Amino acid sequence: MESQHKKSHLEDVAKIRWLQQFFKGKFIDDLTRDVIAKVGELKLKETSPATANRLLALIRAILRKAALDWEWIDRPPVIKLYREAKRRVRYLTPEQANALLRELPEHLADMVRFSLATGLRQANVTGLEWSQVDIARRVAWIHGDQAKAGKPIHVTLNATAVEMLTKQIGKHPKVVFTFKGKPVVEVNTKAWRKALQRAGIENFRWHDLRHTWASWLTQQGVPLNVIQEMGAWESADMVRRYAHLAPEQFSQHAQVVDVLLNGTFSAQQ
């Protein structure tokens, strides 16, 4: 495939599989702007504008190849992307998180607990294998080709994470999280959406579990640079979105100047 050397190759394959339900049996020149827009709207109902845009960008790239390189069509259709919010931080309170956990089926509740305990992205949780886990040493690792930033991620396992992993032992020889003996591939299911409704939680995506993890750490005084390292964010800008959640932490640092100024004034008096 054209994208086989891309870091996101497996993600592209997954997107194409999802698209098959709409494009299977169609000729390439049947994929008009209106047809693609309808698919984009369907994707937007189950995910964020950013994720929907990545799907649309893949379609656009393929159709451009078809027109400019392969000459299968005369010209690619114009595909408009959705407006993306610059800084979206949606997180749950501990009370909301526990309400959601009570409403989820057991296999999803285990995955949510593990996600909240580690801050790992959805793909890294669903794709986690036993070869990446060392319960005795309380560590796990995500390989570079599995990480969004392309760099390996070291995961320190707290007691909750270890408990969730231990609970999965013996269910599958390779993959950690399963349902009825098979690896969990999709988490944005009817069970997930119904649980959110019953818990009274609106406008919340699975990826917001990662925001929740980072928000909780920030509120408990963990420095942003430490959160960046733990969460494997490539840039500090990605973590600064949580800065407003740590007013007490910043207040303590700001008081350093009070000490210096008071000391200076006292010495001059």
Automatic annotation (TrEMBL):
Domain Tyr recombinase spans what residues? 87-255
Arranged from A to Z, the UniProt key words for this protein are: DNA integration, DNA recombination, DNA-binding
Q: What family is it from? A: Belongs to the 'phage' integrase family.
Record flagged with keyword Ribosomal protein: no
UniProt xrefs under InterPro entries:
DNA_brk_join_enz (IPR011010), Integrase-like_cat_sf (IPR013762), Integrase_catalytic (IPR002104), Integrase_recombinase_N (IPR010998), Tyrosine_recombinase_XerCD (IPR050090)
Question: What is the official name of this protein in its record?
Answer: Integrase
Please list the GO terms describing molecular function.
DNA binding
Listed GO biological process terms: DNA integration; DNA recombination
Pfam families cross-referenced by the UniProt entry? Phage_integrase
Looking at the record's lineage, which domain of life comes first? Bacteria
Query: To which species is this protein native?
Result: Noviherbaspirillum autotrophicum
